[in-house]
Amino acid sequence: MWIYDSFFEVRGFTVEETRDSLVAGRRLDSFTAYIEKSSVPDLEIPKEFAKFKSLPSDENFKAILRAAILLTKPEKGRTGVFVAVGNSHASKLGSRYAMYDMLPGIISYVLDLKGPGAFLSSTCDSFGSMVTMARAYISSGLIDHALLLTSNLMLEGSDFKPSAILSSNGRCLPFTTLRDGSWPGLGAGGVVISNSRPAGHGVVGLRSSVTFSAGRDRASFTAPSIDAQQSAIEEAWGIAERDLGRASFIECHATGTKIGDSLEIESLKRALRRDHRIDPLLISASKEFIGHLDSASGLASLTRTYDHLLGMVAPKCSPKAKENEDVELMDGKVRLAFGERLNSQEATAGVTMNGISGSTTHIVLEREVL
After folding, report:
1. Is the distance from CB of 254 to CB of 243 less than 8 angstroms?
2. What is the pLDDT of residue 161?
3. In the chain, which residue ranges form alpha helices assigned H by DSSP?
4. Contact status, residue 81 vs residue 117, Cβ threshold 8 Å
């Protein structure tokens, strides 16, 4: 199974600026610009969807439709459509999830896609849960391809005040001694996964995707579960038939909160114990540069990992993060990636996505060359 195409952009920035920032390690603070009401043009409903212009719509609605048009899709076979929207409670459109739950059907109708359509919400892990669901559909033979779309463009600035989750200094600095919480971000896009191998000398395969719910196996409803994360990681690498101990890097969920980062690192270290890795495992976190995009955060992590595998280079944290890395937390088993070159023609990476509802997903990607 392959990543056939991907598209992601931070609100107010181009696709190129977004992806360049994640590769080069430059910050794009879309949330501050949003609450300061900077002049970002409103999105338009694509002309292909003109038939539905009379429906109530907002920026999330239009961003999902835009991504559906811009993504390259295989020409033959059955395609499922899966949609997730972050912070839907902030929408002013009223009932029926602000029409969000109609998006899969609208897209399937306009693009003449014959697979299933689903609107999914499992908090911050929504995108990860969608990947696991879509991969299961493809593996079962019910569909050949999946179009996964997500947006997080509706926020209420007054709702975001310093707390145990929100950073007091406006920066998200995961796995550092400076971490004190996350910072919001806005973005949208999608990805196409397929049984059809995309053209090109370098391609990225989706080797596995595993999603677990933690149940009551955690300190509280909002606390992440070490065991669930460890189980998802171990099972994902087992299904992929790859060795976590030989992974090129792991893109973490990494909210920058003290408890979240600590439990995520602990789950990784436990999963690594049986793999006899000698050198520290490289880890990274896109939230340092673009903030926490709620349901769209998983897409940001996935596209970042995809781009780095294609370029055969590890992600890059900021010099500030590197200088203040929490060495005690890392314990010599993991360390922040800083743009190292990957030294083989085949490279593997994991992506972790967690939700406050208890859902956790781990995905294994692998770059191959012809």
Report:
1. no
2. 55
3. 15-24, 30-35, 59-70, 95-98, 103-111, 126-140, 226-240, 258-272, 287-290, 297-311, 319-323, 327-330
4. yes
The rounded distance, in Å, linking the Cα atoms of 184 and 290 is: 8
CA–CA–CA angle 253, 257, 259 (5° rounding): 95
**Any idea which fold 202-369 has?**
Peroxisomal Thiolase; Chain A, domain 1 (3.40.47)
Tens digit of each residue's pLDDT (9 = 90 or more) over 87-125: 776 776 654 545 888 899 999 999 999 999 999 887 888
Take residue 136 and report the two structure tokens written for it.
């299961």
Condensed to tens digits (0 to 9), the pLDDT of residues 286-297 reads 999 999 999 899
**pLDDT value at residue 265:** 95
Say which DSSP state 361 is in.
E
Return the DSSP state at 124.
Answer: B
Please give the full DSSP string across 166-209, using - where no structure is assigned: B-SSS---TTBTT---B-B--EEEEEEEESSPPSSSEEEEEEEE
**Residue 148 backbone phi and psi in degrees, to 5:** -110, 120
CA 125 to chain centre: 8
Beta bridge partners of 21: none
Three-state DSSP class for residue 78: coil
Q: Among residues of the chain, what percentage have pLDDT more than 90?
A: 64
Rg over CA atoms, the chain: 19
Amino acid at site 249 = F
Residue range 256-286, pLDDT digits in tens = 988 889 999 999 999 998 766 778 999 999 9
Q: Where in the chain are all domains bearing CATH 3.40.47.10?
A: 2-194, 202-369
Residue range 2-194 forms a domain whose CATH class is alpha beta
Ramachandran angles phi, psi of 49, nearest 5°: -110, 25
- pLDDT for residue 288: 94
